[in-house]
C-alpha cells in the first residue's frame, strides 16, 4: 500500500520544495536507499534561538504507512522541551495518537518546525529546558538553546 | 473536555440500574461471609446487550437513530447523564464536537455517501494509497477512500476504544459505517473494546483475573470495600464461571490472608524471586535411593518407584511421621534454626539475623510454592479423573448425577489447597506466641486433610473410584471442616494482634 503513496509524495515534495516559499525552512527531504527510510534536513527559523542551526531528521516509514505514522528522530543534538536531548526522540501528538492518513511526510516536517517555535511544556522530554520555559525566564531559555545550537547544529549537515 | 469529567463512582448511572434481581447470585459458601459484598455477575456479551437496550431507550428520548446514539454514548464513555445534560443544553454543539453533525459541512452537502463503485475505465484514485481502485466509501464530509485502505485503517482503530473518525477530518463513523466497510461485525469489536475501557475506568467493575475468563463482576456496595479491607475482611466475589477472586486486589481468592498481607507477600516474593528460584524445581531425588522422582499429582505423599520408600515431598522425611500424627513439616523449626545460628559464632549478629530471616522466609515460601504447584497438579488430576468417569458413564449409561461427588470433591480440594497455601503467607507475618501455636496446629490439620483427599484423586481405576465414593465424601467433609477452622484460627490470630507487617 505504502509504495505508490510514497512515490507520489516523493514527486510532490521535490516540486513543493523548489516552487514554494511555504517550506523555506525545509532544506531537503529525500529517501535514503529504499522508500521506507528517509532523511530530512530543517533550518532553524529566523527570529528564533534556533536560527543558523541545521538539523538532520531520520525518518522510518512503516509498511502500513500512511495508516500508521512514520517514526521521526533528530540525528544531531537539539535542545528543546519536547525533544529528548540524548536520543533525539520527538514528543509530538501527530507522530503518535493524533496521526491521520491526511498527514504527509512533508506536512509532518512542517509540524516539527512549528513545534520548534511553539513548544508544549506540559509534555517535556527535556526537563531542564522545560523548567526554564515554565519559570518564564525567556532570556535563559533562549540563551541555553543558542548555546546548544552553536555547539551541535552549525555546519552539522 | 477532560477525562475526569467522565469519571463518576456513584451507581446512579450504572449500566445495570434497571437490571434484574439482586439476590440471584448470593451463593451459599461456608467460607466467606458473602453478604459483606453485594455484587452482580456479568458477561461481556450481556453487557453489550444491556448497552444496546440503553441506547434504544435513549434513541427514543432524543428522537435519533440507534446507531447515532451508540456513537454519541461511546464518545461520552457511556455516561448517559452527562450526555443528556449537554445535549439538552446545546445539541448542535454536541453534534459538531463529536463529528455527528447532520447539518451541511464546509458549506457542502454530500448526498451520495456510503459504498461507491467505479469502473476500470474510470477508477477511483485513493488519496491514502495513491492507487486506482474500484470500490470506495464516502462519509458525509465528502472524504472518500478506497475500501482496502479503510479496512486497514479500521483494523488499527478498533483496537482502541474511541469513536473512529474520518481519516481526513473529525466526522465520526457510526457502527453502520464500520460494519459496511469492514464487511464483518467490526463495530461490535469496537463496542467490546469500549466496554473493556468502561470496566477498567469504573471502580465498581472488575474483570475476573482467571486466565481466559472474561466475566465481569459489579460490586453494588463499592463504598464499603475500603472499610472491609481496613478491618481485615476479604471482599471475595465469584464470577459467572465460578472463579473466586478478591475484588479489592483483583487477584485470586487469598482467604484467609487479609489483603495487606497478600500485597506484602506478593511483593516480597517478587523481590526475592531470584534467591528462591532453585526451590521451584519440580523434581527431587528419593531421600533413600537417590532415584530422581517427578511429582505427577498434587499429593505430597510420595512413594519412590524404585525402592518404594514413602516420604513427604515437603520435608523429604519419611511418611511414617506424617501418617498418624499431624503434619510437622509446616511448622518452622525455630529450635533448629536457633541452633544453626548459634554454631556460626564467627558471624556477626546482624548476619545471623539476616540469615535467620531469610531461612524463615524460604521455609514459608517453599511451602507456599509447593502448594501452588500442587494446585495445578491437583487440577489436572481432577480433570483427568472426571473425564475418565464421564467416558465410562456414557459407555454404561449411568447418569452424571451419580458422579457429582467427584466434581464437588475436586472443587473442595482446589479451594482448600488455596486456603492452605495462603495460610503460609499469614504464618510468615505472624509473631510467635500462643495463638501461632494454635494456628500451626490447625494448619497442620488442614494440610493433612488436603493431602488425604488429593491422594484419592491419584486413583485412576474408575471402578475403584466408584467403590470409594464414601471415602471421597468423608475426606471432603473433613477438609471443609478443617478449612473453616483455618479461617477461624486466622481471624483469631489477627484479632490477637499477632500480625507484623
Ligand atoms: Zn486506498
Ligand atoms: Zn472527512
Ligand atoms: Zn472467571
Ligand atoms: Zn484482597
From TrEMBL, chain A:
PANTHER family: UBIQUITIN-CONJUGATING ENZYME E2. Keywords: ATP-binding, Nucleotide-binding, Ubl conjugation pathway. Pathway: Protein modification. PROSITE patterns: UBC_2. This is Ubiquitin-conjugating enzyme E2. Residues 1-154 form the UBC core domain. SMART domains: UBCc.
From TrEMBL, chain B:
Pfam families: Ariadne, IBR, IBR_1, UBA_ARI1, zf-C3HC4. Its EC number is 2.3.2.31. InterPro entries: Ariadne, ARIH1-like_UBL, E3_UB_ligase_RBR, IBR_dom, TRIAD_supradom, Znf_C3HC4_RING-type, Znf_RING, Znf_RING/FYVE/PHD. Keywords: Metal-binding, Repeat, Transferase, Ubl conjugation pathway, Zinc, Zinc-finger. Signal peptide: none annotated. Residues 122-333, 126-170 form the RING-type domain. GO terms for molecular function: ubiquitin protein ligase activity; zinc ion binding. It catalyses: [E2 ubiquitin-conjugating enzyme]-S-ubiquitinyl-L-cysteine + [acceptor protein]-L-lysine = [E2 ubiquitin-conjugating enzyme]-L-cysteine + [acceptor protein]-N(6)-ubiquitinyl-L-lysine. It comes from the Eukaryota. GO terms for biological process: protein ubiquitination. This is RBR-type E3 ubiquitin transferase.
